């Protein structure tokens, strides 16, 4: 086997000649093979008894061993031989790390190891997308997990890699998992980190060392600006030292209030003006520290701008703000390295600054924890493994990577760095590259198409060139195997192992994450909580700097008002967005547009900057803006890099959090609504309550008007200047929801509608084209309508909105399930007995009662009214789980108590949680109307019939843009409705519905006449009415006192829905809120 043998193994015979000592090792592993055959079935479960969540159809062999297993639906996974090699680490934690194999005809199968001691000397894994780098890192992590080691995996691209890794981890390690994903829209809780937190340390000397260590980390994270210098470092050190010492005192005090601790956001508001700086200095006891803090108080605000500007960018970022405002950390870095915990970090935004801030914080804190572990004789120095994928996104001169790599060996911190573009690191951070080359002893180099990048990697392999790596096949690795005595083998080209198979589904992984966050996380801070806990100033000064007292104003916090601000303070992303908007509204993406039009769009987004004349200089300075002259006028436009910057700045996790379809639909939505004239933005997701995108009106009649006459004039101006946008939305802003996969989950579609109604926005569901799957372009919008409207016999009743499952009982309703657990109280959740077969939970309303029934017949809960469902008591459910004072779980089933269970994982072997129901009356702030939503479909590029975005509304399809409505193929049309008896619950993907087309053939005949009755009779479109929210009703009432005609439109828009075609006989028309 590779690298196994006596100390006198010759490099020349590394591949070809196993010696006698090596055969002893071979015998050992042959014995293990025989031992394994007597254990769990290797085709079905791991050595630790976990079931593989795959169906193996055939295998591929190398010599006599199965190295690849081809599965149904999951693609190739590691074969039995590779799986057992990984899993045996559970019995022998210091086994080698297996990185690949060779299967030459002469030698048969020979596995390649990196010996356990060699892992101290760090690894460097590099390769292009799809070459196998991420699989190599995941297989490495799986081996560490089986061995019981702690590790941290940082995934800067926040793709599905972390989810895949969680699917692969053995069951017995799941309780050790901590997921750090700032701004995750999917989970209710998040990990909290206060960068200024200090643990309770009695010894003063150790405490001061800890403060200095954390201060060093803070300076490294802050120092990311060309204007940073000695003064800013000194200010940061003194401010940070004072706050860290205060926090340490609170930690030491048994009665100390954690909410009294300082956080980074406090530093910003203290620095914002001289009076606060002086007040803060006077609160510091140390006279020497106080002296310099008083000097800071006397400094000009301009002198502090590099520091305040740095923190200001974080305060204004929705995700980072919730991190830096946290006053008590929910995780302990020492506990992570001491207890072999698994820290998984996903960074779900495309901002390089946020990537660096979060990554630097994690890396430096783990490094500090390992140093503390090593210095403390009472703590065991244990192996801990740190791996960072796409390290070029994280690389920073302030990371002190050389110090970490050199000193980490003695402290048993093994570092693995993954790269795609090593040349980028060499160009931007030459010192970091030298540290990697000098200290990462094992290089795993995979296919790399770029000559410069490949050349850097192949410097390691004498006799080989960049072209050898550029021509390397996918899933192969160049490396040198570490040998005894610090020697290496000759360069070898190995085959990579296929990925370790999943042990659980993605849905099960989400339960794992929720359990982990229940243990390690906390509810995210709301902006109201942040503002309430501020020690200095007002949060509004950050989001609306005009709220600050005039005497306290700092140029960094100044509003962009008529007096103007420094041009450097104008956000570049917003300027690019304005230029792009001018292009798509007046020309196209490729054509330059008059600079004056671009400036108008910038002003719409920033207000009157007072620097219109200087924006031309900004255009000239930005490398992402092209300039020229046409007909005597200066014209501007974005370069391809500029357009990429617009989308990457705006898409955040809302675009990257989904798959390729989600990203594509959001970018097309951005283009379309910007072209209509809306101020379009795809906000960075910080939770489930933000829409995927917002498209605000360029003129807001209600917000911008002072009198009723102004309202009418502004609305007329909006209609005149932006007729298509006004026709679509009336006087309402728009919430954009990209329905790519969520439309298969009815609850999510209804939640998106609810969010839009609460925000008084028109909900525009934007959908992908289904024609490539053999369906009509209207397939997905129609599926959305079937979720919202009443459906009977496959036909949509456009006169009734009920937002329930059409498969419900006759005379009753079946509610969709939410993704959240059904909570009875604090740490109390309803449960049902676990079963081996898959079951479904149905929430049914019938005869005034609400019943939660499992598909196997088990009745999990019964309530005597809808209101009782939202205010449950434990007696309403058959069983629930709760926590004891000792932190263990138990299940109460009637009078019988089960447990205790030391962990949720063990409890879930016997019990499953119930999901809460989506009850429309309780979820929506008012009854939804057809005017609250519309669907837009974006045709594929190869769609021969449609080439522009199409509006779909109640069976009617028409172009979104008026100039496209005269085209013969795109005229307004009635659409044949596709029906399906699978249009409820968790909808299967289009491609998986084998008999869908057969069912669709029957969607004609009598159903067409019924649909014709419920659709508008004319194609003459009027602006969409604005269903009144309570706020608008109040406004309209006040206006009516001045203008008797002010409410005419609102009354008219509700006259039809209030009467209803089906309610003329006095019977219940089926409206949602009529049931309350």
TrEMBL record:
InterPro entries xref list: P-loop_NTPase (IPR027417), T4SS_component (IPR051162)
Residue ranges, compositional bias (Acidic residues): 1-10, 17-35, 975-995, 1058-1068
Compositional bias ranges of the Basic and acidic residues kind: 1008-1023
Superkingdom per UniProt: Archaea
SUPFAM superfamilies for this protein: P-loop containing nucleoside triphosphate hydrolases (SSF52540)
Residue segments, region Disordered: 1-51, 953-1076
Stored CDD domains: TrwB_TraG_TraD_VirD4
Protein's UniProt name: Type IV secretion system coupling protein TraD DNA-binding domain-containing protein
